[in-house]
Amino acid sequence: MRRKFAVALTAFALVFGAAAGISSADTDPVAPAEAMDIVGQSHMAVQGTAWVAERPAKFRKWRAWAWGVETKVRKATQEWVHMAIPTPTYIDNTQLKVFHIEFCAKASKPLKSAPKAVHIWANQKKVYTETITWPDTTAEHCHKIDFSPPKWMESVGISVLVGYANRSNKVTLTKAWIALAP
């Protein structure tokens, strides 16, 4: 009985396996190349847990949450923090260029301790630098940078100089992202 069942199952698999090889997909025309072109925007975002301190020993608190990093320093100072953003440079032979970058943070005492400057890096080349005036809000704020025309970048790194007036003020670094277009 088992042998008859095994033979029947094998025959069934061979018949339907061969039939499955015949498909209308094999005879349908291929989509035209322009249908595969990238025409819209692409965005890459990174959770705030990816921030890295340039001088970790200067921090008395570097606590990662699921959405960011809460920071405090040992004494009044300015410290650089960095984040690399995965950057698709080409998709399907279409070059993608960066037109928008932003990073976000929250400051417990924004007029005293907050981001002060930002540098944008494309691999080892600094492509943008700006002094920042952080708004007087304890809510999350996102600093935005736009490139017009868009720039092709081999990679994107964000460096932020955070000024701390004292050891008790907290700065929480949250997400960062880039937007690209063909």
Describe the structure.
The structure is a single chain. With 182 residues, the chain is mainly β. The chain is built from 1 helix and 13 strands, in the order αβββββββββββββ. The strands form 3 sheets. Strands 1, 3, 4, 8, 11 and 13 form a 6-stranded antiparallel sheet that branches. It has a 5-stranded antiparallel sheet with strand order 2-5-12-9-10, with no helix packed on it. Strands 6-7 form a two-stranded antiparallel sheet. A hairpin with a 2-residue loop joins strand 9 and strand 10. It is elongated and about 50 Å long. The termini are far apart. 18% of the residues are buried. About 8% of the residues have low confidence.
Layout of strands and helices, then pairs:
Blueprint lengths: L1 H19 L21 E5 L5 E2 L5 E6 L4 E5 L3 E9 L4 E2 L2 E2 L1 E11 L6 E9 L2 E7 L9 E11 L4 E9 L6 E11 L1
Antiparallel strand pairs: 1-13, 2-5, 3-4, 4-13, 5-12, 6-7, 8-11, 8-13, 9-10, 9-12
Descriptors:
182 residues; five-stranded antiparallel beta sheet; six-stranded antiparallel beta sheet; mainly beta
Q: In percent, how helical is the residue content?
A: 10-25%
Helix tally equals 1
Alpha-carbon Rg, integer:
26 Å
Distance between the termini: 64 Å
- Low-pLDDT regions: 11-25
* Overall pLDDT metric: 87
Tally the beta strands: 13
State the shape.
elongated
Portion in beta strands: over 45%
Secondary-structure element order, N to C: HEEEEEEEEEEEEE
- The oligomeric status of these chains comes to single chain
Overall structural class, as computed from helix and strand content, comes to mainly beta
Biggest pleated-sheet summary: 6 strands, antiparallel
